[in-house]
Amino acid sequence: ANRGHQVAHLNLRLLQQHPAPDYDKPIPPKPVQKAPKKPTRPAVTFFGTPGKGQRFIFVIDKSWSMLGDRLPIAKTELLKTLKQLPAGSQFMIYFFNHVAEPMPSGLLPANQRSIALAENWIRTRGSFGGTNPRLALKWAFELQPDTVWLLSDGLFANYQEIFNQLQQDNPKKAVRVNTVAFCD
User: Fold this and answer.
1) Confidence (pTM)
2) Distance (Å, whole) CA 24 – CA 35
3) Which of 8, 21, 82, 102 is deepest in the core (most CB within 10 A)?
4) Which residues pair with 100 in a beta bridge?
5) d(Cα 184, Cα 70) in Å, to the nearest integer?
6) Average of per-residue pLDDT across 164-175
7) Three-state DSSP class for residue 6
8) How many CA atoms within 13 Å lie on the side-chain side of 155?
9) CA distance 74 to 60
10) 65-113: per-residue pLDDT in tens?
11) How many CB atoms within 10 Å of residue 82?
């Protein structure tokens, strides 16, 4: 260190900060190691918003304002999310504009066959009409979901009615409701 060697200088500083152990003292026992944590299941996410539970419901806007890239992007993300659903879980999809359009097969188990059926149906949905998620949300809560995702790019003319309905359908806030505002 006196000759200007940088590593020796750093080592000297470390020794000055942490003196050498006193070998005459008894060695303290090693701390008891905690059991390793159980691996956690990765969260299910839709556009980065996490879901919980085993029953997942998607309520997706398909109104005129979703024309262009918006609806295809939403569909792509929806399919990506369906493919990450854990075994044993279930899902349902509602598209809405001025009316609600449920997936015809109803609540499905999250497996390859069901996701393939859903994918075929999703790909045929097109943009048209107004923006009213009320009926789709009502039907979604009748399925007793754990997580509901509501994706829309528009304002709801009946916002207060929808809010009141959500409070009525989820009074204890036991169901996680993720809202995804899709905008440019």
Assistant:
1) 0.77
2) 33
3) 82
4) 96
5) 9
6) 92
7) helix
8) 2
9) 8
10) 999 999 999 999 999 999 999 999 999 999 999 999 999 989 999 999 9
11) 22
- What secondary structure letter does DSSP report for 88? T
DSSP string, 102-167: E-TT-SEESSHHHHHHHHHHHHT----S----HHHHHHHHHT--SEEEEEESS--TTHHHHHHHHH
* Closest to 91 measured CA to CA, from 117, 73, 129: 117
Sequence-separated (6 or more) residues with CB below 8 Å from residue 79: 115, 119, 122
Within 8 A by CB and 6+ apart from 169, the residues are 137, 138, 141, 175
Give the confidence band of 158 by pLDDT, cuts at 50, 70, 90: confident
> CA-CA distance, 153 to 151, in Å (whole number)?
7
Q: Which two tokens stand for residue 34?
A: 């905690």
172, amino acid identity? K
Q: Scanning the structure block, which residue is given the tokens 């393939």?
A: 116
The pLDDT value recorded for residue 111 is 97
Classify residue 71 by its DSSP letter: H
Confidence class for position 17, pLDDT limits 50, 70, 90 = low
